[in-house]
Amino acid sequence: MSTKQQEHGHIILIPFMAQGHFTRFLALAKFISQRKPNMKITMVSTPLNVKHLQSTLLTSETNNICLAELPFTSTDHGLPPNSENCDSLPPHLINTLFFVFTPGGYGTAMYFSIWSHLPHRKDDDCNDLIEEFHVPKFPDTCRLHLSQFPLHRRDSDLEVATFAKFCQTQISFSQKSDGMVCNSVEEIDVVGLEALRNHMESKPVWPIGPLLPSFLLRQGNQNKNNGPLVPQSRTGKEFGISPESCIEWLNHQKPSSVLFISFGSQNTISAPKMKELALGLEKSGKYFIWALKPPRGFENISEFESEWLPEGFVERMNITKKGFLVKNWAPQLEILCHRSTGAFLSHCGWNSVFESLSQGVPIIGWPLFAEQPYNSKMLQEEMGICVELARGDETELCSEDVKKVIEQVMDSSKGDEMRNKATVIAEKIGAAMREYTDDAGGHQKGSSIRSIDDFLATITSEKEVV
């Protein structure tokens, strides 16, 4: 390597093939580019994914970020033609593309703890499944319930053993690395990052989050959007409704009066649960925006059918204007940063969690799979800004439960307390990405700025005091 190359360096990014991961890796690339403008950054993926990503980079001001294609033929791996992204696959085929990836500190540490120290699933005295257990590397008070395991991972000893072997191999590789970059913030993920560092032993863990569009952090909870549309990166996705229409509808609602409902890009619930959720929304009398996707078992159907909702529900929403129904993709970032949005009913995927927290919006949790139950647990037990409505799609749920939780989060004193806590967290998230000169003339950096600078200095062997 030449001296010039050693000075500039070259970082290769290989994101997991899913919409939310591409978005965050692009944010990471741009973050690195801001700190090291002369460093070359290459994001690697398959041809169709690169094509989608290219449109985003064309409008970017960075010229040191490039894309590289890896040959990939989906049919060679038992996938449908042109399937290079989890968003285009039914749930049972997603594992075909799976390799290790991690969310925030808490979720990653939980993943490491559970699969490295797989808990005993049966009581030796009575041969019954043990329903609750302590999580290694976490405080003694941290308990995990069996229902917080993904359903298909806890149905049989064979399934658990097979997946555990895969996970333990990936965790071992992670622990042999020189360090870990984590999309989190030091000040809000204290318990999780401490546990993760215990797993990594002497290896550094760099929390460099939040990897979010700059306008979310610039506006913050004290400067909510109320009209002018802020652009966001779509990475090839088209919304089911124009962002302008959403904003116009939100502009007519009172502050913190709207519930936003979305289960993310790879998640959905069953038709019976969908009907109960709809009835509960209607009983609550709250205004809401709902990003509708075909229910579980109908993922391959492109058009949402009204029959999956209670009879007459769509027509009643059109008349009362209480519910704004969006088929398929909704402009989530624009909705969450609007002053009228008061709560977010979410699957608790880490990207969605961070987007909500950055705007001081409390969460109604409905985790479905992967690390989502752990994120929900952290939001509820460690942060106090979440109430869990359901867990997985097997949970019994009735419309009265939905109504009760919505009212608790949006109307009660507990809801006010959650909003206040979420506002404080939003301020901490914004501060982590801030760089400024203090009153004494000193140069100050937020924790995530310090962390990314330390990471870049470490990998380029130019470590400096930050």
TrEMBL record:
It is an enzyme of class 2 (transferase). Keywords: Glycosyltransferase, Transferase. SUPFAM superfamilies: UDP-Glycosyltransferase/glycogen phosphorylase. It holds the Pfam family UDPGT. The keyword Glycosyltransferase applies. GO terms for molecular function: UDP-glucosyltransferase activity. CDD domains: GT1_Gtf-like. InterPro entries: UDP_glucos_trans, UDP_glycos_trans_CS. Coiled coil: none annotated. Its EC number is 2.4.1.-. The keyword Zinc-finger does not apply. Belongs to the UDP-glycosyltransferase family. PANTHER family: GLYCOSYLTRANSFERASE, UDP-GLYCOSYLTRANSFERASE 92A1-LIKE. This is Glycosyltransferase. It comes from Papaver somniferum.
